[in-house]
Amino acid sequence: MEWRDEGIILSLKRHGETSLIAEVMTREHGRHLGIVRGGRGKRLAAIVQPGNSVDIVWRARIEEHLGQFALEGLKLRSAELIASGPALYALSVAAAHLRLLPERDPHQSMFETLEILIEHLGEPQIAAALLVRFEVAMLAELGFGIDLSACAATGATQELVYVSPKSGRAVSRAAGEPYKDRLLPLPGFLNGRSVLDDPTPADLSAGFAMSGYFFERHVLEPRQMKLPEARAAFLASVLAMV
Questions:
Q1: Which of 44, 196, 199, 219 has the greatest number of beta carbons closer than 10 A?
Q2: Cα 54 from Cα 32, distance rounded (Å)
Q3: Is the dihedral of CA 169, 175, 179, 181 positive or negative?
Q4: Which residues span the domain enclosing 39?
Q5: What does the pLDDT read at residue 174?
Q6: What CATH number corresponds to the domain at position 70?
Q7: pLDDT band with cut points at 50, 70 and 90 for residue 196
Q8: Over 70: is that where the pLDDT of 229 sits?
Q9: Left if phi > 0, otherwise alpha if psi is -120 to 50, otherwise beta: which for 36?
Q10: The pTM is what?
Q11: Torsion of CA 208, 211, 217, 222, to 10 degrees
Q12: Mean pLDDT within 46-74
């Protein structure tokens, strides 16, 4: 068995004296594990690091085996990521969310969403908004999509500023005003505004509160799990910078 793909390294685990087990998110083959022979040696040290994009060849005798990775670097970001606490937190959160997907199950849209997030980890405010978008995309991938296209009450597509915690649908300012204390604020960067427009601290806090609410309710509580601790640390570190 053999395939070739592009991937992003999520995590690493020691294996034997000189090797590593790499966890990668690939474009065509989903989240996948494989042994990197000699991964702890000097030759591969700069390549086999979390956050790096790599060209992967996977080989195994049969499909069910863990198999081996042969890796070549495509985009080596690890030096920049290691120097940034918020970047490492964000990568840790994204990896934890991706582990909710079945291993080896293709999710090309999530690979592309992860790639966009990682490309902006050096810009904390933008990365925070992108991480919320990543979580919203994950919810949809897991079957719990949030509908932000129109007001749940009136069908209006303008002035969407709330989200119903019951239905997961957007609510307009006019329709939601009498019930605003029971609704979740909808951040502008999820409502047509670009994440490149320097999201405000209030928008970032609202976005994390909204996606976190639906993640806990639909995904984590049924599994008796909690949001990654790195998530709160990431948001706090970003808000401290703005």
A1: 199
A2: 13
A3: positive
A4: 2-77
A5: 96
A6: 2.40.50.140
A7: low
A8: yes
A9: beta
A10: 0.94
A11: -100
A12: 96
